[in-house]
Amino acid sequence: MSFLRHAAQLAWKDLRVEFRTREIVYMMLFFAAVVVLIFSFAFVAPAEEGPAQVARTMTDPASGATVMAPKNREVLPNVAAGILWIAVTFSGTLGLGRAFDRERENDTMRALLLAPIDRGAVFLGKALGITMFMLMVEAAVVPLVALLFDAPIHRHPGELAALLALVTVGFATVGSVFAATLMRSRAREVLLSVMLYPVIIPALIAGSKGTSAIWMDPSELTVAHFWIKFLIVFDAIFVMVALWAFESLVVE
Amino acid sequence: MKLRGIPTFVFAAAAALLFFRLPFLVFEKAPLDYMLYINQKIFYYHVPAAMMMFLAVFVCGVASVLFLVKRDPKFDDVALAAGDLVVTFGLIVLVTGPIWAKAAWGVPWVWEARLTQSLLLWMIFVAYALVRRYGGAGSERLASGLALFGMVNVPMVYFAVNFWKTQHPTNKVVPNLRGAMLSVFGTATLSYFLLFLVLLSVRLAVGRGQRRLAAAHDLAVENGHLD
Amino acid sequence: MATSAPAPGFHEVQARGLTKLYGRHRALGGVDLTLRAGSLCALLGPNGAGKSTLLGILSTLVRPTSGKVAFAADGRELEPREVRAAIGVLAHEPMVYAELSAVENLLFFGRLYDVADVTRRSAELLDEVGLDAEARVRPARTYSRGMLQRVSLARALLHQPRLLLLDEPFTGLDRAGAQALARTLAAAKRDGRIVLVVSHDLEAIAELCDHVVVLKRGKIVHDEPRDAPFGPAALKQTYLRFTE
């Protein structure tokens, strides 16, 4: 099908262009790492407890004295998962903006829209490109989060990968539609965040809760599977809507 | 006075009367809930407002789609008016909800499926309002895209509540109302619906008026009558 | 200059009643226009007249608020994708990827347009527009304005478009470049293509232009097709008469 072929050609072009400078991926990676660090500072306990432990006190039932609570394994997975997804989201928005800025620079988006290809293929190509950039960044950020929070990333890697991939696809889909529509807008950087985040938060919640379910001790696989199913539905619906709406939104 | 304003006036009068009557119905006619007593009565204000909020979401979403396909500014006017109504009715929902929640659950807010998704839906349409006002050129198209994705979000709210055991009363409450509760609920819903129609038509009229005024202004400038 | 057979397709472009409203601003108000094969039309007018909007509508990137453009061939209306396959646009922005070379850009676009024997055709075109072999493999961000214009022209001509739309194509070109462009446009006319040029540089197009359309405040105030090129004097006169 020429539709898929054209989308693939576009995505491949984006990869080639990106590999010449690696600008977007490096920026996204750095920014994601910074976000992870900023948020982890909020949860660092006093030095004796070691990093990334949430310091809590409790009343010892036997003596009635106030003591340090044992390392709370219930809080950590949520914190680590949440921080992971915040970092992915923020750096993703950055990359999204920059990727479409590139098409603005020499007005190449206009050339793509002029081409005798399905406009949906233009959307799909961009979304695929951004998905790949984000997955590359996630490949580095997940180990980083695991390192800082002692999160068990080796556990259920299939489910974890599914969550990462599905949320990324959803983010890239909605993000590409909005970013493309915003290309000629004056306030496009602000508006991208304003428009994108509320729509995409359900997917982020799903990713975050699914991830923390996996990282719990023991892992709550049924919960993770629920969220994966939710994301599949979310992505399916939004990809279809995006494919239909892209042309109307981008043509003046 | 133009004939066109008369239905709106009639609806407004009817809505005003019904809303005036509603507290009496709620406190005297509707039976006391066996668990929450008087606190439950906010249900008659909360649920119809939520229903109108969702109605406004669909009106805005459908009007946006029609606008994108046909590019007729009339559809855009409707979408704009409905978008504002989502924010308005949503505000009622988000204020009455926590009041009820504090009484029923002890906490005003809980991060569970339906509450979260409703809040997000409201925020999508606050964003819609922001885009309409500050989006600059082409903001009608932009906002239409946002409204479309917002509308598509709604089925997920509905199904998430069913799949995920939550604290929020499930979708089963309203269809199972009986007797006096049902009739008072019906009156409340009717009042809100009339209010919805009135607000929509007034907001529509304002929006259309603004557009026509601007067009007339431009025409006058073009023909040299103004500078 | 390599002349190639014109792509099968429409022989004229007919625009009827084109109106475009941007919110409250009326960019075009009821424009009727007919463009014929083998003719070069100069679209003139002051800034803000609606020329870019008209070009946008003709290139199918802007949807008119009302009115229609007909690209009819053999009595059948063409599908939007067929229409796009037969249109080439040269605008103010070069529409090439800065990180890719001229060759890579042309190969990329050539594949999107299903251009036959794209490697050879790209090489030929780059020869025609005068981009030397060393430059054409460098990334486009190293190109001067004039070089970018040349690559852009090559991109616009790559698929042998039936309709050529050019928006200020002579800006940034030196004498040699302007002459090369003029030669290319003359060849396009000879091949029976339809050319529409928006240009402030009347002298450059005077010998080619045989149809003048003047746009003012979104309306056509003058539409004069001729059988022979206007020439510099007549063109200037027409322009001055209708844009004061």
Summary tags:
heterotrimer; B: 227 residues; 78% helix; globular; C: 244 residues; alpha/beta; six-stranded mixed β-sheet; 10 strands; 34% helix
Structural account:
The complex is a heterotrimer of chains A (252), B (227) and C (244). Chain A has 252 residues and is mostly helical. Chain A contains 8 helices and 2 strands; from the N terminus they run H-H-E-E-H-H-H-H-H-H. A two-stranded antiparallel ribbon of chain A has the order 1-2. Chain A starts with a helix and ends with a helix. Chain B is mainly alpha-helical and 227 residues long. Chain B is 78% helix and 0% strand. In chain B, helix 1 packs antiparallel against helix 6. Chain C is built from 8 helices and 10 strands. The radius of gyration of chain C is 18 Å and the shape is globular. In chain C, the strands form 2 sheets. In chain C, strands 6-7-8-3-9-10 form a 6-stranded mixed beta sheet, with helices on both faces. A 4-stranded antiparallel beta sheet of chain C has the order 2-1-4-5, covered by helices on one side. The A-B interface holds A 174, 177-178, 181-182, 184-187, 191, 194-195, 198-199, 201-202, 205, 226, 230, 233-234, 237-238, 241, 245, 248-249, 252 and B 68-69, 116-117, 120, 123-124, 127, 130-131, 134-139, 141-142, 144-146, 148-150, 152-153, 155-156, 160, 163-164.
